C-alpha cells in the first residue's frame, strides 16, 4: 500500500498516488492544528507551557510542512523553552529553526537571548548582528544588542579587576617573602575583618596593626603602621595624655607604664600559595582563586602546633619591619601586639606565663 512506500519512490497506480496525497494533506492539516493548539496553550499561561511544547513537537513530527513553516515551529518551541528557563533546549530549537530558514528573525532573537542567559556573550552578539543584517530596524534586536554590549563591558571590567587583583596580590606575596616575613592564619577576624598590608609606590609596606589589651581584652587599631616607623611614634599618639582610655579607671595605662609583647612561634607559616589565596580574599579574584579552601587545614595546623604562650617584649625604638622579621614571629594575618601595664596587678600574671589568648 502507498502508506508503506519509502520516501522518494513513485506510486505504481493513480489510486496509490491519491492515497499518498490524501495522507500528506491529513498530516499537513494535523500539523497546522497542533501548531494552533500550541499557540493557544502559550496564551493560557505557564501552567500550559508543557502542553504547548508537546503540541509543537507533534506538529514538527508530522514532517508535513515546508521548511519555512517548520522553522516557525522550532522557533515557537524555542520561545516556550525560554519562558521555562530551558536555555540549552531553547538554543538548540533556535538553531534547528535557522537551519531550515536562516532569515527567521524570531529564531535569531531567541538564539541570541538564550546565549545571553547562558553567558555566551560572543555567540549572543553574533546572533544579534546577524539578525540586524536581515532587519536593521528591528527594535527588539537593537535593544538586546545594547544589553549584550553592557554585559560584555561588565565582563571585561571584571576580568580587568580580576587580573589586577591577582597581579597585585602576587607582587605583595613576593615582597613579603623577600622581606623574610612569615604569615600565619588570621586571628581576631571579628576585629580586623579583611584588612591586609598595602604596598606603596616606593615598595614600602603599610600594615594595619592591632594593639590588644590582654588584661581586659579590649583593643586599639592602627590603620597605617609604616614598616619603617618606630613603635614609639605610634605609642606616643595612642597613649597621649589628653586621650585616656575610657576603661582605665585606675590610670595604669599611661604612656610611661605600657609595654608591648608579641607571641613567639604562634601557629605555622603559610606557604606562598596559601598566602596568595588569603590575600585575595575580599578582592575581585577571591572566589575564582578558591579563597578559603585551605582555611580548615590551616586551623588544624594551628591547633597542632600551638603550645604554652611565649611572650617577647618589643623594643619601642625598633621599626615595625625589624620586629616582624624576627625568626620566631609568625604574623597572625596582620600584626597583633599585646599591651600590658607595669602598674597593673595583671602584669605579674602575664609575665609569669599564666595568661594565654582565648582559643581561636
TrEMBL record:
Q: Does the keyword Repeat apply?
A: yes
What top-level branch of life does the organism fall under?
A: Eukaryota
| A single GO cellular-component term on record | nucleus
Named from the GO MF annotations, one term is: Hsp70 protein binding
In terms of Pfam families, this protein maps to:
Wheel
**Start and end residues of each Cns1/TTC4 wheel domain:** 200-266
Q: Which Gene3D superfamilies match?
A: Tetratricopeptide repeat domain (1.25.40.10)
CDD domains found in the cross-reference section: CTWD_Cns1-like
Any single GO BP term: protein folding
> Which UniProt keywords are present, listed alphabetically?
Repeat, TPR repeat
Recorded family membership: Belongs to the TTC4 family.
Q: What is this protein called?
A: Cns1/TTC4 wheel domain-containing protein
